[in-house]
Specification:
This protein is of the alpha+beta class. It is built from 3 helices and 20 strands. It has helices spanning 34-37, 242-254, 263-290, and strands at residues 11-13, 17-21, 26-32, 42-49, 52-58, 71-75, 80-85, 94-100, 107-116, 124-127, 137-143, 151-156, 163-166, 170-174, 182-189, 194-196, 200-206, 213-218, 223-227, 235-236. The longest helix is centred in the C-terminal third of the chain and has 28 residues, at 263-290.
Length: 291
């Protein structure tokens, strides 16, 4: 979209409306009659009215202090004036002007700039780190690769109304608080968009009062089965632990751990038998000599 020239056909902008995102950069291009104004000073100013316009930078090298490093201007001396604004913020929204410093009456052209937050992308959920040995706590992270000023919320899925459970990107699952199996997901949101992650399934096999065994499964990813107070290793994958846990828990419930037979008793028995055989053999030899 091309602008209508404000004063004459000597200065105009490629776009009269420009949109940038927070933290990003924006390049504005203005064009002028190079046959008349190639050696005139050009500038970029900010203000709702051309009569009240605060000059931010000009082609003579002057830059307003709080814009130093954030703004640049370039005149190619062939009719093109380029302005770049960096590290954009919402406060940069407003009306700007390309200007040519002309005696008695500057030539100016207005450009309306709007800065918005970048929309979020679909958040990705991952295990923040490998679970600890006991797996009593498991932390899952939610992250959106895009978006500015992103807010994260974890929800427990429900048939009636989803319930928020954590207002941060990281969710920690503790053995003591997992009372039932549940489906969880996170949302990433800002002022312009909101996205939800895939489901995270938490399957409580045995609650905390029964030693706590639970499995965590992220949709389309690996799963972790956690045994708290039963085993010293974390099981990765979809390994079925029910049968093994039953056999282990039966021993634990009686407080008796089955061990191999006592090696000392076997040794004593063997020694007795061995000496009895030796004595018998000795008696036989003596009898045969006498004969």
């Amino acid at each position: 979209m091309f602008s209508q020239v404000s004063d004459s056909l000597h200065l105009w902008a490629d776009q009269t409306q420009e949109i940038g995102t927070v933290g990003g950069s924006l390049t504005i291009v203005c064009r002028y009659d190079r046959g008349k104004y190639v050696f005139f000073k050009k500038y970029w100013c900010h203000g709702e009215s051309r009569n009240w316009c605060d000059t931010l930078i000009d082609t003579d090298g002057s830059v307003k202090t709080n814009y130093n490093g954030r703004i640049s201007i370039w005149d190619n001396r062939r009719g093109l004036l380029s302005i770049e604004m960096k590290q954009l913020s919402l406060e940069d929204t407003g009306t700007y002007w390309c200007g040519i410093d002309k005696p008695y009456a500057d030539i100016m052209c207005a450009i309306h700039v709007k800065i918005v937050e970048e929309p979020v992308s679909d958040p990705v959920v991952t295990f923040l780190s490998l679970p600890s040995v006991s797996c009593s706590t498991l932390t899952i992270s939610c992250h959106s690769a895009k978006g500015t000023s992103v807010h994260y919320t974890w929800y427990k899925s429900s048939d009636s109304e989803d319930v928020p459970v954590q207002l941060s990107h990281a969710l920690s699952l503790h053995c003591e608080t997992l009372l039932e199996s549940q489906q969880l997901y996170c949302t990433a949101s800002n002022s312009v968009s909101k996205k939800s992650s895939v489901l995270v399934g938490v399957d409580v096999i045995l609650p905390a009062q029964e030693k706590c065994v639970f499995r965590v499964k992220i949709t389309n990813q690996e799963s972790y089965t956690c045994w708290n107070g039963i085993t010293t290793s974390t099981v990765l994958g979809t390994y079925d632990i029910t049968e093994e846990y039953t056999s282990r828990s039966s021993s634990l419930s009686t407080g008796v751990i089955k061990n191999p037979p006592d090696a000392t008793a076997w040794y004593i028995t063997w020694e007795v038998v061995r000496w009895m055989l030796f004595a018998t053999l000795l008696v036989v030899c003596i009898v045969m000599r006498q004969c």
